[in-house]
Inverse folding.
């Protein structure tokens, strides 16, 4: 039996990878214009980071993480080698493949004292892992383009200006990628105080009805009622629809913050709709929460999600460091692109075809010269006949084919044929780059 890629993972193949590169290059360009810099964190972290950061009661942490016990290292609680420590503790360190990037970035922010620099604008592009039921637009290894603004009190990282800035940056990126028809949904989930009151109200509202709900909701109603809003079970939706909403529980500073975010967005022409059911599936959120959806995506229609997390650094044992950010689901973003892979793919400018014995060296030298002039060059083999060279050049999508035969080498002038028009001219070596580029 042949071995296949694991369910929920996939190979990204050419020409589609050209679209992924197009998206990532455009994102890097846009982020640079807003003064973001790249951060790369490890793909696995200690399990505790996500348990404390994302939240034990979230679907991500309670059901979807790829977690294992690392038996190869010393126990974190002892200097003794694992084998000795294991006798005392019974286990090694619990590690997890990152299901999202924010917790790792905030961990790095704390670990490297990035707060000393004032405002940190960071972005990360890479794979994330969640054990979800695979379907179109939902994978177990998927890619996120994540950006965060974090900073110590006084750096302005808590300002509504930052919320509007990241949202406007996203609108700019989607526009630059040619993605039309997206929808921005906005909510405020308030601060810890607001949520304590909200959770209490939810608990009371759930009490008489929770018996009719799914097992997950029955558990959530006790441990973390807000998470009831994550429920996807159709039969539970009419009950959830009637529950109190966070918008009625915002205190004055949270209300003002949210008003100002909306005010700036409206003034700079970013359209949004308010959705007070939007609580996002991660526990670290405070105040602004948002999602961009796209109609063409079907059931998994969220291209990206984000929000503010003013208490996350403290929850991870760090200093106060309010922050806001987002993660784009790159798989879904690529699916909603109007561009085809062919249109963004860089095709060879020229296919160099050695014809006849001894021509490989000549052709390799010529290809090297042209590549040094930044041309995209594909190279044939002297064993190919003319017909096979033409077929290979056409398959590669080359603009020109350049014939390197004995006569051409003697004359130091080469037959250059435009594969689209069929026009063929003889071009002296020194003029090749210029002719091909023209
Ligand atoms: P999230 O909503 O869990 O937020 O994920 C962000 C985006 O990742 C989703 O909108 C979706 O496009 C994509 N995504 C999530 N799961 C999958 C999957 N199984 N397959 C394909 N795409 C998926 C976060 O991860 C937060 N860390 C975002 C954030 C950053 N908040 C503040 N800063």
């Amino acid at each position: 039996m042949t071995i296949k890629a694991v369910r929920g993972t996939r190979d990204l193949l050419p020409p589609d990878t050209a679209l992924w590169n197009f998206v990532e290059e455009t994102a890097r360009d846009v982020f640079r214009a807003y003064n973001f810099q790249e951060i790369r964190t490890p793909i696995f972290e200690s399990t505790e980071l996500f348990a404390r950061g994302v939240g034990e009661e979230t679907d991500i942490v309670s059901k979807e993480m790829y977690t294992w016990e690392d038996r190869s290292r010393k126990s974190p609680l002892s200097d003794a080698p694992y084998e000795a420590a294991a006798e005392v503790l019974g286990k090694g360190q619990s590690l997890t493949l990152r299901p999202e990037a924010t917790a790792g970035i905030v961990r790095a922010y704390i670990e490297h004292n990035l707060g000393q620099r004032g405002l940190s604008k960071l972005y990360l592009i890479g794979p994330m892992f969640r054990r979800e039921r695979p379907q179109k637009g939902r994978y177990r290894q998927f890619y996120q383009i994540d950006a965060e603004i974090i900073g110590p009190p006084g750096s302005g990282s808590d300002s509504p200006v930052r919320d509007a800035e990241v949202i406007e940056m996203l609108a700019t990126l989607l526009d630059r990628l040619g993605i039309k028809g997206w929808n921005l949904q906005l909510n405020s989930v308030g601060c810890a105080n607001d949520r304590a009151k909200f959770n209490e109200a939810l608990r009371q509202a759930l009490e008489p009805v929770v018996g009719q709900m799914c097992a997950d909701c029955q558990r959530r109603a006790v441990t973390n009622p807000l998470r009831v809003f994550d429920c996807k079970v159709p039969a539970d939706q009419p009950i959830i629809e009637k529950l109190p909403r966070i918008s009625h529980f915002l205190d004055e500073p949270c209300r003002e913050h949210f008003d100002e975010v909306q005010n700036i967005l409206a003034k700079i022409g970013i359209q949004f709709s308010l959705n007070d059911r939007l609580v996002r599936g991660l526990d670290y959120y405070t105040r602004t929460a948002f999602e961009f959806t796209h109609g063409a995506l079907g059931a998994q229609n969220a291209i990206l999600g984000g929000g503010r997390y003013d208490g996350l650094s403290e929850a991870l044992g760090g200093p106060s460091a309010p922050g806001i950010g987002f993660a784009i689901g790159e798989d879904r973003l690529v699916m909603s692109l109007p561009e085809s892979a062919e249109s963004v793919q860089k095709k060879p400018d020229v296919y160099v075809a050695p014809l006849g014995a001894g021509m490989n060296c000549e052709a390799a030298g010529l290809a090297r010269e042209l590549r040094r002039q930044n041309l995209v060059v594909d190279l044939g083999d002297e064993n190919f006949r003319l017909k096979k060279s033409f077929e290979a050049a056409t398959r590669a999508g080359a603009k020109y084919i350049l014939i390197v035969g004995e006569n051409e080498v003697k004359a130091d002038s080469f037959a250059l044929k435009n594969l689209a028009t069929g026009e063929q001219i003889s071009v002296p070596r020194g003029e090749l780059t210029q002719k091909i580029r023209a």
